[in-house]
């Protein structure tokens, strides 16, 4: 049944007796479904391109493939296109805890999003030492040790998000959302606010400043000191390739800042306001919360588009994979036709 008031945005569908799916829910669900589907496909293609192209097996590309893995997992574990429908779902405590910790409560999503942030930070620092601090070779990542750096970022991300994972449980008596997750407007006790504020400052705001510092230092070296990516005779192609890669990395950093900073700023604000203020502005803040969370997930959808737009290597790799797929398809069709002709000859040779 459909009910409506004077404002069309209040159109809602009533399910059961207490759960309301509003037009806002439908809009966000549609947007999430779009970015999740195409984002998973896009990040999957990026991973395949790097794996299938030996010339792309470089330190930076290993970090970028780790970013694509984190983005792909962020999209797969994103509950944004279904969590609004969980208000009236009743589960057993054990099953409910599992659903909240793994899927609906953003516990796994927090790890993958944080891993994306750490990876972008490591990429920026790696480029900084490679281009600005060229004589400090001990701090550079190489193919031999980049795996250790990637493993360390995953361990750190899991460790940082572990308190949120523990506190993320199913509430059988909940009247709104059944998962008691940290990144929400409900049940914001002082300890949870402290965790959120600390998390945002240390693991979202601080990496943002580190990334900006590294790329500003590189930009200063290119534009003013002119000691980075100089087109020396005989190395023009190599330096131009460095510039294209740098342009891609800066684009990824800008997308991260634009998509993630509003989320951090919003929750820092939520952490400092009083409960009475939050209650008075709940509807507005709830919409703002959904919007900044969508932006956060949107970053995982945008990154593969940036690879395709900024990097000729990724475009060439995609064309190469498409050609191989077409060749494989043609061979399959040809083999099938040969088999069918063979079967026809066998049937003709059989005595009637």
TrEMBL record:
Molecular function (GO) terms for this protein are: G protein-coupled receptor activity
Q: Which UniProt keywords apply?
A: G-protein coupled receptor, Membrane, Receptor, Transducer, Transmembrane, Transmembrane helix
Q: Is-annotated flag, keyword Repeat?
A: no
TM segment ranges:
26-50, 62-82, 102-125, 146-166, 195-222, 248-272, 292-309
The record ties this protein, via InterPro entries, to:
GPCR_Rhodpsn, GPCR_Rhodpsn_7TM
Name the Pfam families for this protein: 7tm_1
GO CC annotation: plasma membrane
- Keyword Membrane in the entry? The reply is yes
Which coarse location class describes where this protein primarily resides? membrane
What highest taxon heads this organism's lineage? Answer: Eukaryota
Q: How does it sit in the membrane?
A: Multi-pass membrane protein
Which compartments does it reside in? Membrane
Domain G-protein coupled receptors family 1 profile spans what residues?
42-307
Among PANTHER family, the record links this protein to:
LEUCOKININ RECEPTOR, LEUCOKININ RECEPTOR-RELATED
Name of the protein in its database record: G-protein coupled receptors family 1 profile domain-containing protein
């Amino acid at each position: 049944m459909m009910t409506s008031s004077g404002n069309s945005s209040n159109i809602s569908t009533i399910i059961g007796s207490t759960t309301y799916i509003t037009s806002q829910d439908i809009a966000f669900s549609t947007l999430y479904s779009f970015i999740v589907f195409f984002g998973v496909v896009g990040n999957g293609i990026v991973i395949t391109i790097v794996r299938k192209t030996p010339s792309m097996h470089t330190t930076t590309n290993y970090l970028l493939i780790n970013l694509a893995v984190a983005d792909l997992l962020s999209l797969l574990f994103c509950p944004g296109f279904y969590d609004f429908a969980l208000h009236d779902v009743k589960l057993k405590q054990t099953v409910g805890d599992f659903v909240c910790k793994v899927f609906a409560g953003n516990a796994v999503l927090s790890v993958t999003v944080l891993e994306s942030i750490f990876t972008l930070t490591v990429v920026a620092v790696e480029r900084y030492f490679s281009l600005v601090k060229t004589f400090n070779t001990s701090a550079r990542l190489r193919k031999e040790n980049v795996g250790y750096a990637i493993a360390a970022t995953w361990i750190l991300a899991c460790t940082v998000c572990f308190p949120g994972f523990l506190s993320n449980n199913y509430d059988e008596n909940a009247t709104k959302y059944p998962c008691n997750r940290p990144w929400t407007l409900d049940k914001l006790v002082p300890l949870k606010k402290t965790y959120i504020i600390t998390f945002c400052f240390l693991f979202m705001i601080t990496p943002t400043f580190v990334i900006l510092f590294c790329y500003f230092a590189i930009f200063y070296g290119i534009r003013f000191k002119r000691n980075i990516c100089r087109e020396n005779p005989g190395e023009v192609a190599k330096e131009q390739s460095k510039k294209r890669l740098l342009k891609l990395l800066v684009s990824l950093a800008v997308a991260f800042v634009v998509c993630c900073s509003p989320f951090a700023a919003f929750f820092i604000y939520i952490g400092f306001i009083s409960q009475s203020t939050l209650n008075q502005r709940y509807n507005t803040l709830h919409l703002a919360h959904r919007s900044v969370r969508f932006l956060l997930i949107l970053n995982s959808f945008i990154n593969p588009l940036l690879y395709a737009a900024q990097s000729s290597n990724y475009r060439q790799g995609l064309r190469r994979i498409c050609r191989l797929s077409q060749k494989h398809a043609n061979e399959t069709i040809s083999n099938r036709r040969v088999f069918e002709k063979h079967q026809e000859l066998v049937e003709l040779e059989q005595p009637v």
